[in-house]
Fold these 2 entries.
Entry 1:
Amino acid sequence: MKFLCFHGATTNSETSWEKDHLRRDLELDDTASFHFIEGLFPSEPIRDVEYECPAPNLRWYDHNGIDLTKGVKHFSEMLTFKNMTSPEDGARRAWEDYSGGVSNGTELMVEYARNIIEDEGPFDGFIGASEGGSAAATVLMDQLQLSRKQGQACTIQCAIFFVAAAPLTEDGKGYLLSDTTDQRITVPTCHVYSEKDLLCWMAKALENVCQDDGKTTILHEGGHTIPHTEKLMVDVAKFVRKVKQGDIQGTPLTVHNAARG
């Protein structure tokens, strides 16, 4: 299986995946290979120590209003809404209060990904972290729609989302949410996040826009981060191998993993 990988906000492909046990595990027995791409838009680095990384600092969306320079903890606290009724309610309130829209919509990012898929593909799966998870989900929605229009099966067999957010609408004016659309990501998905993360409702909003068949949720004990530990990545690797073997479960599966960082 060949995966297209989207790094997290204000990082880059080298620093996002340099400690990746998943990559080592799946490459060791030729289960999977990985193609890493870079975000389109320059950004200031995030100040939180655990998120610091060397330049280039890149993002997938040209946001008008989201400033991450004060750190993820500060940003998370801003988005901890009182009386939140659902993950979708939180996503809408976050967008209305802080996003201010995405310049150029999502067209530029999606077109960029389409060109990479055409030149470097076909790909069997997507992997995305944080904002890169939202970008991966947005591109996956686009690929599924293209395949339906062309009357062809989509080559993407699965997606893995680490502490990610929901896909954006085509016009870049909001998140694509399960309570406002019937559109769904119709391939098996793996969602990795922590309920201790103040932004976990973003990951849940993404979960809800994915079909139940073949859905795996892996809950870890960290915060808004990817615990690059062998213990966690073994569970993610199991998901990939099941997809490759055609042995994915039909009903949602939740795995509790004690990894912290």
Entry 2:
Amino acid sequence: MSLKDKSFPSSAAFDAIHSSLQSDDAERKDAVKKGNAIFAFKLRNTVGQEEGWYIDLKEKGAVGKGDAPEGKKADVTLSLSEEDFGKMVAGKTQAQRLFMSGKLKIKGDVMKATRMEPVLKKAQTKAKL
């Protein structure tokens, strides 16, 4: 099941993150231990559409579409443009820089949001954005 949405080209990164988490059991457990949160991403594309994905690093180490896994709630929600998300995953910009410039909005536990960066770094090598 692909998480990519053709209206959101950088959403291919969610497939890469999913693949990264599923390929190595020890790495997935390590990511869950370090992340210890459910991260929701709300992306806006150039025509104003908004779509959501989540990364569950609280229990399963899973990635999916929507705000959170069924029956769960995100600890942190990151809202940004699809273009900026692509740059962040590709390593061309940092989440902190986007946040400080107002391009990234964070709801929930801001400190937990900082735990997301290592997971995105692992996806950089697999995502072709």
